[in-house]
Design brief:
globular; seven-stranded mixed beta sheet; single chain
Length: about 270
């Protein structure tokens, strides 16, 4: 059975490598079509060039940029609206166009917390992706954005409470947020150890973030064994986008994955911070 095509949707360059680099590399190695949509940073910027290198390493094609500005870096897309400030309908339409053009079997994105740090762009990407996946299959929504296409499954990249013991010892000192979910909400635990080399190389391709001491830089300063512990497992929550969803996990062959509700306890906010 061929590996399902996979479209990852993330807020910033480097999110794709940190959150889903293993799954992207796994699917590409199996011959599946893979791609990444990034909500912020414009073509021609250094971070967009770094993203292109990371995607080449992961086998995920060319960057697909929505073109909005990072909430905390206006220079990321000069003259463009900050992602959180842009009209919601406009952002959803842009992403629907990518979904309909690529026609993925599976979409992955941030969880409702926006991942461990809870960055406002991450939270907003979750919201926009959830709406776009639903809208992409409805022919009367955004008819100018291409022929309807309903992805079979939507997964939210997350971290379970049980990972705090490992994560906290390495990430808490760096002042990183620790937004985790109850273990029972996790429906796909993926061992990406065999693809860790590609994942880590893709993370390091984001040289700007390494140099400024953001998460890639923090990880680069850790012992190799610690990095392996932190990066060799990826966790996901499966969300059923509709009747077309398959009853089995599409992230890795043979891994059971029943539909599960999104992580609760977070109220969506359009505040860019």
């Amino acid at each position: 059975m061929p590996a399902p095509s996979l479209l990852a949707v993330y807020a910033h360059p480097d999110d794709e490598s940190l959150s889903s680099g293993g799954v992207l590399a796994m699917h590409a190695a199996a011959g599946a079509r893979t791609a990444v949509v990034t909500a912020t940073w414009a073509a021609g910027t250094p971070r967009a060039a770094e993203l292109a290198e990371a995607l080449r390493i992961l086998g995920a094609g060319e960057p697909r940029l929505l073109g909005y500005a990072d909430a905390r870096a206006p220079r990321s897309a000069p003259g463009a609206a900050r992602f959180c400030d842009a009209p919601l309908d406009e952002a959803v339409r842009r992403l629907v166009a990518h979904i309909r053009e690529f026609r993925p079997d599976v979409v992955v994105t941030h969880d409702a917390y926006g991942g461990l740090p809870g960055h406002p762009d991450h939270v907003h990407t979750h919201r926009v992706t959830l709406l776009a996946v639903q809208a992409a299959g409805l022919e009367r929504l955004y008819p100018d954005a291409g022929a309807p296409w309903q992805p079979g499954a939507l997964y939210f990249a997350t971290h379970p409470h049980s990972a705090v013991r490992t994560l906290g010892g390495y990430l808490a000192p760096a002042g990183k947020g620790m937004n985790t979910v109850a273990d029972e909400l996790v429906t796909a635990t993926v061992d990406v150890g065999p693809w860790l080399g590609r994942k880590w190389a893709a993370v390091l391709a984001h040289r700007t973030e390494v140099a400024r001491g953001a998460m890639p830089g923090h990880l680069a300063g850790l012992p190799a064994a610690a990095r392996q512990s932190l990066l060799s497992t990826e966790w996901y929550i499966r969300h059923d986008p509709g009747a077309a969803a398959h009853p089995q996990s599409e992230l890795t062959a043979g891994l059971a994955g029943d539909a599960s509700p999104v992580a609760g306890g977070r109220t969506w906010s359009a505040d860019c911070g």
